[in-house]
Amino acid sequence: MARKNVRQLWKDKVAGKPVSTVSGLPAGFIKRKYVGTILGIDPSLRGTGLAVIEFGEKGRQILLRSETLKQRSSKISMPQCLGNICARVLEILDTYEIDIVALEQTIYVQNFQTAQILGAARGAAIAAAAMRGKEVFEYPPLRVKQAVVGNGRASKEQVAKTIRTLLGHGAMLELDESDAAAVAMTHAYTGAHEVS
């Protein structure tokens, strides 16, 4: 039998198929499936992606909500944008029984001002989670792409297509929403959670 590549192994694991343990297998394969509801967040000042996914027994995963909080108007100041991010995350946390909040870490950027803005957006989301006493986990983009697509250099479009397949969702999510869903899945597949 031909040896499966990492992407096929992830696909089988997510589908609930048995995956044989072989040397070099990512640590996430050895853990049992996560059961609970995760809010995934892809923070950005003008387009924050949000996705709520419920992970059930036998690998069942259901997208309960996804959206992109768009704040494109130049009339919306940075403080207002941050307040809106915090308010939207609080609204989701008050609507759903969220167990974990998972965020994508800020990517490396050469522009200091861009890094500052992304950090502020991330802080607004984390502050909302802290206000509701939720545990927060952060994952670098490379790890998210590796966990979901099997390729740390995958494009945003590849991530979106994979998320659609994994969720069995008919329509493609917007890119920020699929990134948020991918962060939630990264925690479910590879995160530091207890083995049930």
TrEMBL record:
Reaction(s) catalysed by this chain's protein: Endonucleolytic cleavage at a junction such as a reciprocal single-stranded crossover between two homologous DNA duplexes (Holliday junction)
One Pfam family per UniProt: RuvC
Presence of the UniProt keyword DNA damage in the record: yes
Gene3D superfamilies membership: Ribonuclease H-like superfamily/Ribonuclease H
Family assignment from sequence similarity: Belongs to the RuvC family.
Function text: The RuvA-RuvB-RuvC complex processes Holliday junction (HJ) DNA during genetic recombination and DNA repair. Endonuclease that resolves HJ intermediates. Cleaves cruciform DNA by making single-stranded nicks across the HJ at symmetrical positions within the homologous arms, yielding a 5'-phosphate and a 3'-hydroxyl group; requires a central core of homology in the junction. The consensus cleavage sequence is 5'-(A/T)TT(C/G)-3'. Cleavage occurs on the 3'-side of the TT dinucleotide at the point of strand exchange.
Quaternary data: Homodimer which binds Holliday junction (HJ) DNA. The HJ becomes 2-fold symmetrical on binding to RuvC with unstacked arms; it has a different conformation from HJ DNA in complex with RuvA. In the full resolvosome a probable DNA-RuvA(4)-RuvB(12)-RuvC(2) complex forms which resolves the HJ.
Name of this protein: Crossover junction endodeoxyribonuclease RuvC
Natural source organism: Pelagicoccus albus
Gene field: ruvC
